[in-house]
User: What shape does this take?
Amino acid sequence: MIEKTYLSAGRSAPLRIRVNGRETELDVPPSKRLLHVLRDDLGLTGTKRSCEIGRCGACMVLVDGEPVNSCLAMAYQCQSKSVTTIEGLSEDGMTLVQQCFLDEGGYQCGYCTPGMIVSVTALLANDPSPADTDIQEALSGNLCRCTGYGGILRAVKKAIELKREQTG
Amino acid sequence: MLLNRETSGGRWRIRPDGTGKVTGKLAYLTDLSLPNMLIGRVLRSPHPHAYIRRIDVSKALAMPGVHAALTAKDVPGLNRFGIARPDYPVFCEDRVRFIGDAVAAVGAETAELAELALAAIEVEYEPLPVVDDPERAILDDAPLLYPEGNVFHRNEFKFGDIEAGFAAAAHIVEETYSTPRQMHTYMETEGGLFVPGEDGRLTAYSPTQHGFMDRMQLSRILAKPEAEIRVVSSPIGGSFGGKDELNVQPYGALLALATGRPVKLHNSRWESVRAGLKRHPMKIRMKTGVDADGRLVAHRAYVVADKGPYSTLGAEVLNFATEHVVGPYRYGAVDVDTVSAYTNNGMSGEFRGFGGNQAIFALEGQLDRLAALLGMDPWELRRRNLRQAEDPGPLGQPISVTGGAGQVWESLAGSALWGRRSDPALRSSSTAPWLLCGIGSAYVMHGAGLGVGIPDPAGGRLELRADGKIEAAFGYEEFGQGLIASLTQMLVEMFGFAERDIVVTIGDTDVVPDSGSTTASRATSMMWQSLRRMRGPFGGKLLEAASVALGKPADALALGEGGIRAAENGRLLMNYASLAASLAASSAQPIRTQTRFSYPTSPVDRVGAHYMYSYAAVAVEVEVNTLTGRVRVTDQYHAVAAGPVINPQGYLGQIEGGSSMALGFALTEDAVMDGGHYVTKNLDTYLVPTIVEQSGGVTVDAIEELPEGDEHGPRGIGELGSVGLAPAIAEAVYQATGKRVSKLPIDPALLQERFRFD
Ligand code: FES
Ligand code: FES
Assistant: This one.
């Protein structure tokens, strides 16, 4: 929901946002894209910039747990929300999904990888054993130009399998 | 060997650069920033063709926070760049020739200010007639881009009596093929950070495929000695040939020197589309005849390529197409003419496959059409005409001998996918009769290296560093292909080092040797050759030094994980750090080996002819939805013969990823232009394959066997995978629907049928 006070206040009211577990206050215009807030104001460059129109997923982050193209979200829309970027997925080390991308070679240049991993993380958080069509649906907004998605799919399947073993 | 993680066993390794990529910690060059940096922006032409009558930057310069507004007169050196021929203006002086042309650049304190400053620059243009059709461009009455005419480059190749060949033919196929303006679409757009040093030096942190080439060209533009320029060029978020030429570097460098402050540029996607290279759109007319037994008796090809306004490597691409429209077959007579024409369309240039994609789409289309006329299995037709191992190359030149051509033919013929062709259940389903299936195949023989007549240096350096690390330094770039991983894997497997013993240094002109470009599927081959040359000398020096330090004969010692080991039982005797320390203590020379050589070439006098080739055969199964006209690829089989697999994960990734580009080339990708303007400006209309299009299986058979005594080792695989899938899809569509595809990407309207539901 739009928080009217911040929107109408322009620069005078700060953006309050929780990023990777840390409360942050920033003096940025309400219309500034979350992508640029993250990259330019917070130095969180793991979130990538590619199309800036919501078509590639390189900029994917979690906003209150939901995957969002940060190039489409404006600062005011993130007021009081909790944002998780690739840097915040795991406190230290690596999540299971990240480890599977590493093991299976689910990346090449790596530029799509943070966004891809964020989308996979969101998918598996909602549904630990998605069907193939669900995987396709969930990742269809994340473009990868290098891998042809082979390694990515193998990584996702591996993550599903390992998750099942862990919980099973 | 079917290539996957299981069959690769322990050779399937985690990439050394992987952790930074999956955690987002790896800083790309467009992620860099400095506290006092300026934002650079480039003003580009709104017209595809126009005279510039006046440029006035004074209003922009007067804006507070704008620190520079540069035009052609601010370029101290050569106001041009281009790898093969420097004819691309850094800033246009009096004429623009495409809508990516730059006329000015600004450096300002914020992105918003830079944008405003661009808007404040006044440029008066006088539009000129636009040349947007390469075929018309070379007619006598076409408006000219250059006084010398619109023909940029021509080539030809002919042998035999072509008319007699056609006269003797039992069947002749004539067809015109056209291919799209494919965009590299690296996910990281061009950009970088340009930092002037207090010592007068300039550091350009910006992706490229050959750091030393950038340094040389920047030196020429800036009128600054090469030694005063450092180019840091890796890691890179994808390139595929697209970042081979300079892009933002001249502007970043000029702005940084003009303002004395660091300057960052990072293209928007639209700016990348507008100014960046694309694959040359080609129109290829072919006439090919066979005798009643299916022997190719005559083959004529005429290629017209859309160059756009400036050279880039357009001549080399056309030469490559000239060679690859002939390809792997034997003919009675051949008659090839090719021409590349200047237009006011977007810039065409180097792109993975390098003219082979277009040429082979057409050539394989001819073979499939001839097979149908002959009533012959298309794969059998290829076998009858296939080159033999000892045959010369496509241009009659001697080439390195491998059995690759026959090996991939056999592999495909024996594949399960190809076997399904005769399955009567394949063609259609009774529950959804509008879905039609078909299987097609294609054959690829692809040259690697830059070819005859083009300097193609290679080399590298190994050193035992003072801290005990083995440093491998090469002037190559990592744009995702896994170069660091492949180099590490070779060091482990050829020398016996552990991964933790090794440091790979690349992508920094201050510290690496010039190894030539990271292009033309050459880098892995050249690293392998370099290491083979250095293995004896470098390993020998390590063992000698250890022999002195340990007081044991060198032949009782061996290189191993972590250090020097006893040859007989592998026991660790001395780690590399101690070895380095003992060298330092005795003031001995540091241990260092360097090698320099050139990519092997064919001993002929024909510019661009290749010596080393890789071979691939591709089979594909498609499902055509005749209601929507959409084609879905459901299964792929790739047989690849390119020598030993250096890095299984990387190899598989190159074939899978390359073929994904071919899928886009065949089905959806086209940077559409209208009157010299881009219609497709971003990824909402420029459609690269998503995971949905890529849901079918991909099987890769890597054939490693080389003839005994082969000296060349791994052949290139970086481009090969991006070629064969498109013609294979075209044939599969024909098998499914009976409709021939000669234009890519396939227009769904061609495949739509009226369907009656009763
Ligand atoms: S940059 Fe946000 S979706 Fe492409
Ligand atoms: S790994 Fe390069 S775009 Fe996905």
In short: Chain B touches chain A through 59 residues (CB under 8 Å). Chain B is about 25% helix and 25% strand.
